[in-house]
Amino acid sequence: MYKVLKATFITIWSLFVLFPIMWAITTSFKPEAAVVNGATFIPWLEFQPVLTGWKAILPGPDSLTNLLTPTLNSFIVTAGATAISVAFGSLAAYGLSRFTYGWKKYSNADIIFFFVSQRIMPPVVLAIPFFLVLKQLRLLDTHLGLILVLTSGLMPIVVWLMVDFFNALPREIDEMAMLEGCNPIQAFFRTILPLSKPGLTVAGMFCVIFGWNDIFFALTLTATKVLTLPVAVIALNGTVTPYWILAASTVFSIIPLVGLAFVIERFLSRGSLGGAVR
Amino acid sequence: MKKGYPRFFLLPGLILLIAIIIFPLLFTIRVTFSSWNVSQSGLNFIGGENWSEMARDVRYWGSLLRLFYLSFLTVAIQYVLGFAIALFAWKGIAARRFFRVLWLIPMMTTPSLMAIIWRSIFTEDIGALNGLLNRVGLDPVNWLTESGPANFAITIAEVWQWTPFMFLILLAGLLSLPKEPFMAAAIDGASAWKTFARVTFPMMAPISIGAIMIRLIDASKIFDSVFTLTRGGPGNATETPAAYIFQRSLQDFQIAYGSTLALTYLILAILTLTIIGKVFARLSKPKGI
Lengths: 278, 289
Fold this sequence. Notes:
The complex is a heterodimer of chains A (278) and B (289). Chain A is built from 14 helices and no strands. Chain A has helices at residues 2-28, 32-36, 52-57, 68-98, 108-117, 123-136, 143-168, 171-179, 184-195, 197-212, 216-221, 229-234, 243-269, 274-277. The model of chain A has no long low-confidence stretch (mean pLDDT 85). Chain B is mainly α. Chain B has one domain (48-287): MetI-like (MetI-like fold, Orthogonal Bundle). Chain B has 13 helices and no strands. The model of chain B has no long low-confidence stretch (mean pLDDT 87). Classes of the chains: A mainly alpha (278), B mainly alpha (289).
């Protein structure tokens, strides 16, 4: 009885997970007529698969838009924001895990809460002031501008994950290093950092996911030069929604990250993700 | 130990974060006392007019109430489903590595783009769902233009997108649990249900709380699915504060009034989440193992 319930649940959940993705993939191969005249599902039976949607987004004679430059922009912005967030965030997290800071009545817990609370900030609150600041600094529509703005949303995740991760690493490790004559900074870089690869990888992967998927800041703070992938796709929307092109672009833009699912699974199975959330 | 070392670690990140955030925040506070809009740009001073207008803005308070129920509902569903599939993927099913990858995939997709796919599924004339209903001989449903179904559509999109996040955090937590308590339970002959209720669930409490808090923080910002699926409609039936503020400040360009709404929204979000965090901390402490 329990086994049947379990199998049913797993089947239904897997179908639910797969359905929108299968729908996006089939839609990306549909001709216009198979979309606008009502829902069609089974290729070859209900519609003849064509490459119209894909030709519109890839370079070539039928190209409507070039998604390769936006892809490159997304790579640069995501990598930049991830690198800054992981570097500064993990340093701060290590400090918060090992030392006691005090300023008036504020303690470590309050500082950690301050970091995490930055993530509560809804993008819509910050969009306009960020626009004005970046305009003043001549950083509007530049990679650096978008990287800095994204960092404010990503660093909190790194601090949240890494404080717990460093807390789980025995203090004896750094104490040993310091007994051997390292100062705390050397102890961190020589002994703790090499042990922290799993935690840093997980924190980095979360940054990559959230950075790659940001749309709000990219939409309001960049115009033409630093068009990111999601923004470029949204811009394809016309008076008649060209679902076949949008579906092709969606499939195109999720391919790089789906690879990450395999990476994360390998980490899980090797058991090295456990420490990162404790 | 010399005082400089602790500072070396904390200050770069703290200063960078404050530098990025401080001016936008101060600006937002100042602009709420001005009348910055399409025809009048600049920081004049009009006192508390925006604030009293906000107090009377039924549409705004309605959107906050809706967010309250929408975020708690979606996060609760994500937690229950995420925990269930995490337990299945933890041990005891064949091909669990395959299922782990499969169940992670929605988290890797771009929410704003998946929202377009969801619209193509829920859209009423040519959408997949009404197409399927039609094939099995059922009447089409007005998924996006009727209040109940529209809220359902948004809930489905949110659950699909973010349950994998819960799943990932909870599965990683399950995999890191020590083995001894489970052996002790097995020796005592505890049933599967009892082992879960007395061992697994209490040991997962800290991780559960962390995952729920992070999800609540992100759910307080629900925007992509609402904006793409329904634009807040029909009427205002699905409008969240983020969508309403987006319209007032970035489409109608009422920057001062939009900032007033945004600042209040931020303060309320921080207050609510702090209280929830404190309650969770108290609930989880006395039990423990």
